[in-house]
Automatic annotation (TrEMBL), chain A:
Native source organism of the sequence: Vreelandella sedimenti
Origin: domain of life: Bacteria
SUPFAM superfamilies hit by this protein: MetI-like (SSF161098)
Protein name per the record: Carbohydrate ABC transporter permease
UniProt keyword list: Membrane, Transmembrane, Transmembrane helix, Transport
A GO CC annotation given for this chain: plasma membrane
From TrEMBL, chain B:
Keywords: ATP-binding, Nucleotide-binding, Transport
Protein's name according to its UniProt entry: ABC transporter ATP-binding protein
PROSITE patterns attached to this UniProt entry: ABC_TRANSPORTER_1 (PS00211), ABC_TRANSPORTER_2 (PS50893)
Coiled coil: none
GO CC entries: ATP-binding cassette (ABC) transporter complex, substrate-binding subunit-containing
SMART domains: AAA
Annotated ranges, domain ABC transporter: 4-234
The organism of origin for this protein: Vreelandella glaciei
Length: 292, 373
């Protein structure tokens, strides 16, 4: 039902029609690459070389998907991107959980247990959001070497946690600023300490911002290529690096359908996360404070 | 023994001095109200008592024990916050028992305590609800219940009624007073509402700029204010301050109020209320303090024995409140408020003869604003 009162003159209707037309065109333009990828990934190779990019598949087949998952060659090996897909999960899940946890604790300490210089600490952490990845590649490689975890999953997790903390701290800090300090004072008087107040009072109302932090971190880390290519060995590569290798390994004919299927596989988790939790993402970003 | 003693407490934020040598002592079972305009330091003092902010110097004793450097949890106090500060994720029952749980009170005792305060505050039917499902008045009750459950030595109330609407505020005020009379608890209560202060307190501390200006019973603070600030802050409508000059009158004193373009007004000062240092202020400007109820219609009986002094003035505004009528009338260079009975049939613009009860009038120094007599 219309919840806005609008002018109903013919000119106004025409204007609105135009507006919607432009919006729909823009939406189609944005969805087009995904559609083309999806169509190409289910076409047999013969159809791709014969037909146009935009034609619908005549004989849809899932063979390119199974090939991309288990048989396609990524560099010297030919066992698909499946293994790297799970590699990515093994890196992303711990990195997301650790960086979100630390971010929440940081945000809590920076807002509810202010100390001398806490604003400066926050400003410096904020600065961490703007550091370009390339700048730290060499020092990070050196550090990972010293720690004895270069080319391992643990090393990649550490790198992503370190980079993620700046963002997660920012999220949680801005969320907790909106939660009244009196809640913490009341809990202190009731006899609760630092961790107890966090666990019992603040964490239960933090769901919106946890969702934001998890989605953000998941997307960032999953989509990362630079750290993945720089700090992994062949058996710890994330799926993004494997995808790159798959596309760049050409023996004879270029299998666009397999490339597209592999790209879909690599993009799928972030798409799924976004579709499932995107509503909460927007809600969490716009949540001002907690009622109550 | 004093239940709460505050000894020369100072608090500084950088170079700003928020509390300047505050000392208060109250007995067990007393109801102390800290009142003053915003920024006077009353909330800071409250936080210092609670232990939420460290003091710069001085000591705080609860039940004779020095608690100045103890954590809030170890002071045996409970606090009701202005915003209620109910834990949003917990039910009312969990809110009330949280403090007991943190103190490792056995579950059965906790349940008993919850039932006891829920019964006392009539919130038993709300126990399973979350704070977001409660109205303002109900949240207020839960916040009080949370404080009452622990039975601490001192209760702190930080403007607990200021978020309620007018009618509910009056009801809750009465309820707090009843609770205090019934339980005999020691309460420190911060408010900027002088009516709350007058109606609830055993003892009022009027604060301004980090000082306690006056500490006394509501009667003392209202009828014998130490200076113009206290006199003006307590009472609604507030006290009228009238510029006058002090003159000799056959050995006694009188006040002359300049009334440009009219007969001048002279009010004799009652003999029994002559103060020692009035002589040095002869022919100097002073401020005469008269509360609205110190005026009355000519034929009304006066509360004090002294014959009231008659004056006549033209009424500028008539404000009936129902219970009585407030009149605004020009007196000398200023307009004053007078409170007369509801039957007074006077219209704006008419002249009215009023009696002034000089036996209760208060005289202030025009410069220092301190009380003279």
């Amino acid at each position: 039902m219309a919840n806005v009162i609008r002018r109903q003159t013919p000119a106004a209707r025409l204007g609105r029609g135009l507006l919607y037309g432009v919006l729909i065109l823009a939406a189609l333009f944005y969805i087009l690459p995904l559609v083309v990828m999806l169509m190409t990934s289910v076409k047999p190779l013969s159809e791709i070389s014969a037909g146009s990019l935009l034609s619908f598949p005549q004989n849809p087949t899932f063979a390119p998907w199974t090939k991309a998952w288990g048989e396609a060659c990524t560099g010297m090996r030919c066992d698909g991107v499946g293994g790297y897909f799970w590699n990515s999960f093994a890196i992303v899940i711990p990195a997301v959980l650790i960086s979100t946890t630390i971010g929440a604790l940081n945000g809590y300490a920076l807002t509810k247990w202010r100390f001398k210089g806490s604003e400066l600490v926050f400003a410096l952490m904020l600065f961490g959001c703007f550091i370009p990845f390339q700048v730290v590649l060499l020092p990070m490689a050196q550090t990972l070497g010293w720690l004895g975890i270069s080319s391992s999953r643990a090393g990649l997790i550490l790198v992503h946690v370190v980079f993620g903390i700046a963002f997660t701290t920012l999220f949680f800090r801005n969320f907790y600023v909106g939660i009244p300090n009196e809640l913490v004072s009341a809990a202190k008087l009731d006899g609760a300490g630092f961790f107890r107040i966090f666990w019992r009072i603040l964490l239960p109302v933090s769901a919106p911002i946890i969702v934001v932090s998890v989605i953000w971190q998941f997307t960032q880390i999953w989509n990362d290529f630079l750290f993945g290519v720089a700090f992994s060995a062949h058996n710890t590569q994330p799926v993004t690096v494997a995808l790159n290798n798959l596309v760049n390994t050409s023996t004879g004919v270029r299998e666009y359908n397999v490339d597209m299927a592999a790209a879909m596989i690599a993009a799928l988790p972030t798409l799924v996360v976004y579709v499932l939790a995107g509503k909460y993402f927007v809600r969490g970003l716009t949540a001002g404070s907690v009622k109550g | 023994m004093a239940a709460l003693e505050i000894h020369n407490v100072r608090k500084e934020f950088g170079s700003e001095r928020v509390l300047k040598d505050v000392s208060i002592s109250i007995d067990s079972g007393e109801f102390l109200i800290l009142v003053g305009p915003s920024g006077c330091g009353k909330s800071t003092l409250m936080n210092a008592i609670a232990g939420l902010e460290p003091v710069t110097s001085g000591n705080i004793y609860i039940d004779g024990e020095d608690v100045t450097w103890r954590t809030p949890a170890d002071r045996d106090i409970a606090m009701v916050f202005q915003s209620y500060a109910l834990y949003p994720s917990m039910t009312v029952r969990q809110n009330i028992s949280f403090g007991l749980e943190m103190r490792k009170v056995p579950k059965a005792e906790r349940e008993a305590a919850v039932e006891r305060v829920a019964d006392l505050l009539q919130i038993t039917h709300l126990l399973e609800r979350k704070p977001a499902q409660l109205s303002g008045g109900q949240r207020q009750r839960v916040a009080m219940g949370r404080a009452l459950a622990r039975e601490p030595k001192v209760y702190l109330f930080d403007e607990p009624l200021s978020n309620l609407d007018a009618k509910l505020r009056v009801d809750m005020r009465t309820e707090i007073k009843k609770l205090h009379q019934r339980l005999g608890t020691t309460i420190v209560y911060v408010t900027h509402d002088q009516v709350e202060a007058m109606t609830l307190a055993d003892c009022i501390a009027v604060m301004r700029d980090g000082h306690i200006l006056q500490l006394g019973s509501p009667d003392e603070v209202y009828n014998n204010p130490v200076d113009m600030f206290v006199a003006g802050f307590m009472g609604s409508p507030s006290m009228n301050f009238i510029r006058a000059s002090l003159e000799n009158n056959n050995g006694g004193y009188q006040l002359r109020i300049a009334t440009p373009g009219e007969d001048e007004l002279v009010l004799p000062w009652p003999e029994e209320r002559i103060a020692a240092d009035m002589a040095e202020r002869l022919n100097q400007p002073v401020i005469l303090g008269l509360r609205p109820e110190h005026f009355s219609e000519e034929d009304e009986r006066l509360t004090s024995q002294a014959e009231g002094t008659l004056l006549s003035a033209s009424v500028a505004v008539v404000e009936p409140t129902g219970a009585d009528i407030l009149l605004r009338l020009p007196l000398g260079e200023q307009e004053v408020t007078a409170r007369v009975g509801p039957k007074c049939a006077v219209a704006a613009g008419e002249r009215l003869a009023l009696r002034v009860d000089m036996g209760r009038a208060i005289l202030f120094d025009a410069e220092t604003e301190q009380r003279i007599a």
